Amino acid sequence: MKTIRILAVDDHEMTTMGYKFILEDTEFKDFKVFVDTAKSYDGAIEKIENSVNSFSYDILLLDIQLSQAIEGPAKTGEDIGIYARKVIPKTKIVFMSSFSDNYRINSILKTVDPEGYMVKTEIDQKSLQAMVLTVMNNPPYYTQKALAAIRRKMANDDIVLDEKDKKILHYLSVGTKTKDMVNHISLSLPSIENRKRHLKAVFGVEKQNDQALITESRNRGFI
């Protein structure tokens, strides 16, 4: 019987062991499942590289937020997905994350174009089993919250924002001060302030404060 090889990456070992226990114990009709695990970006990259010349992972299950090493730039599950697309392009990628906000999900859909996205609060035995079957036979697979975020984005395609606009909205929504956004976005402070004024005009809150912009952009599914 064919074996479907899965690499599950999450810095919480209990999470990956839960995936492993459920999927390896499931009796699929046409295949059995073997789940390998990794707890960090480096660990995942090492296992992917080691697999290239010996076997191929059929599916990667990637958490977005991973514990970081003491030194070096922060790496995420999104970075693993981008790398995997280059070295093992035929492997299916599914994100398993607590993030359900529109900005994060739609950003990953653009950078990685995964075969699935599951919000962790919606993951259970049945959804895990359904995800594997769908991804292997007729992807994509999304849980309800992920699908809702995608649909809200599609409904707002008449408003076109570039990546810098989206980043400004995102950092506003998490409480970043405008003067500190220069540390996260490659724009000068006057440029960021000009874009904020433009965004308020686009969303019809010209004479209101930043909270009104956050509320309106969230209502329209941009964050």
Largest beta sheet, briefly?
A: 6 strands, parallel
Broad CATH class of the largest domain: Alpha Beta
Distance between the termini: 44 Å
Q: What is the SS-derived class?
A: alpha/beta
CATH fold group of the largest domain: Rossmann fold
- CATH architecture designation of the largest domain: 3-Layer(aba) Sandwich
Average pLDDT for all residues: 90
The structural domain count equals 2
* Tally of strands: 6
List the helices and strands in order. Answer: EHEHEHEHEHEHHHH
- How many separate helices? 9
- How does the overall form come out from the CA principal axes? elongated
Q: Give the strand order, joined by hyphens, for the main sheet.
A: 2-1-3-4-5-6
What is the name of the CATH superfamily of the largest domain?
Response regulator
**CA radius of gyration:** 19 Å
Describe the structure.
This protein has 223 residues and is α/β, with parallel strands linked by helices. Helices cover 47% and strands 14% of the residues. It contains nine helices and six strands. The chain has a six-stranded parallel beta sheet with strand order 2-1-3-4-5-6. Helix 2 packs parallel to helix 3 (77-87).
